[in-house]
Amino acid sequence: MNRALWIKAIVEARLLLAACMLLLFVFQWIYVWVTSLVKLGPLYTFLTELPEHLTGILGAPIEEVATIEGRIALGYIDPTMVVTAAVWSISRGSDVVSGEINRGSMEMLLALPVRRAEVLVAHAAVTVVGAALIALSAVLGTAMGVWTVTLEAEVAAATFLPAATNLFALTFFVCGITTLASSVDSVRWRTVGLIGGFYIVQVIMEVLSRSAPVLSWLKWFTFLGAYEPQSIITRMLDDPAGAWWLAAQFNAVLLGLGLLGYALALALFCRRDVPAPL
Amino acid sequence: MKANVASATLVETRGLTKTYGTFTALDSCSLEIQSGEVFGLLGPNGAGKTTLIRLLLGFLRPSSGAARIGGLDCYAQAVDVHRQVSYLPGEARLFRQMRGRDVLRFFARARRESDLRRSLELAERLQLDLSRPVASCSTGMRQKLALAVVMAVDAPLMILDEPTANLDPTVRGDVLQLVREAQREGRTVLFSSHVLSEVESICDRVGVLRRGELVHTQQMSELRRQHRIRAQLTGDFVEPPPEVAVGLTIDTQENGLLVIHTPGELSPLLGWLATLPLAEVTIEPAGLQAIYDRYHPPGLR
User: Which CATH superfamily includes the segment(s) B9-222?
Assistant: First the structure.
């Protein structure tokens, strides 16, 4: 492996990675604090009376989501969390091939005596480690909140660990498919647009599958069906082994599809013509 | 794998073709470039120069035919080929997040054949400010930075795709000087350019591309011996003796203008020319422009 490629990948990723990690760490910490301020009280009765298609969006039974752990868990499906993961995945995944071609820097990079696979793997490895650090910073933020904020009941920070692995798996999957799209493209913003559009369609499908029982079959066609941190966390309360098993199942789907994306990206990039920069 | 750089032919293409659908970017290009030679590639935009270079670098898969550098297949053995090649793209775009010095360090780390000290010396010679981030450098500065990278690589073949584009005249001169130095060190140079005077001054041989076809190759030493004689006939034209006439191209026009192209030495012609009734005689080297115009006539490019 070429050390220079690794250093380059780290240098290019460090600012965005630091920003994403800081954002999720602070966000989760604040989320725990905000959760401590909201007392459900009579609101709980109101929530239990809501129609099923509205409570279904929460992804877990209302009595479980209403617990302090359940309410903190909602932070993991908050748009801030999901969008930050998407920003990291899409910006890094789109950068590796179409980004370098688009900027014109692929020319001198590929003229080096390095295999194309090395260029992609060094970049992808830094991206995947970054995804793991982002998930870790989120769970550390939650832990910091749990340790520093006075909550209505005692909460174990470890409860949120399997949810963090699910967040990592989601980020890995999006990295994989974005890298796949990037590997056959030459214009970065087209890759970003394609994956961004795909992501939005998947979110819409996920919301529809949860809120309209007649459309519940849509959950089989959206990768977000395998991103259920709130279900995993609420399961942790009474069945930790079952929660880890549930996380493993969701993660296997996301990691498997992400890995397939990376494998296809590698195969396509190593065989494709590299056009002159625009 | 080590290439056999001692062999006479360093670069070889046989029937090299690249098509995109129905469009043929390079058509059956067969070419040999000898070790130590400076070979110029000429042709207007879209003639196939960059396609040929990209095929040599293994960036493109040939539609048919083959390209070899140092006996290695340019596509199938691209990594080994790249150890033999140092490449400067037409418009070098480097990593924008890095400073100039970091760019030099990156390339020195990335390949064994590169020498950071030599890069830094070249950067100084090209008057580069290495503390500036690439993103804030002008196009010319970036090109100079790329030159400092490329010229510091100890590879047998240098491929320079329009290396002087975007450079001021002083630095252009430096670049041509660096190419001459590379040649003196025994390196082979493939030099693509639109600037005929530059090609004329540094190349040993040139190839002219037209619509994807290599239509002509020309030894510059032969070209330098060729002349064009223009004169006004003031009397009857006398055919040259047979021993002088070999290879001559004589064009007598209705207005009495006589244009003679000579294939080699001028001295054998002088005796015959002295017998002709001529006025306003001008003798000039044929020059690359004449060759270029033959395949790319002005107005039809």
Answer: P-loop containing nucleotide triphosphate hydrolases (3.40.50.300)
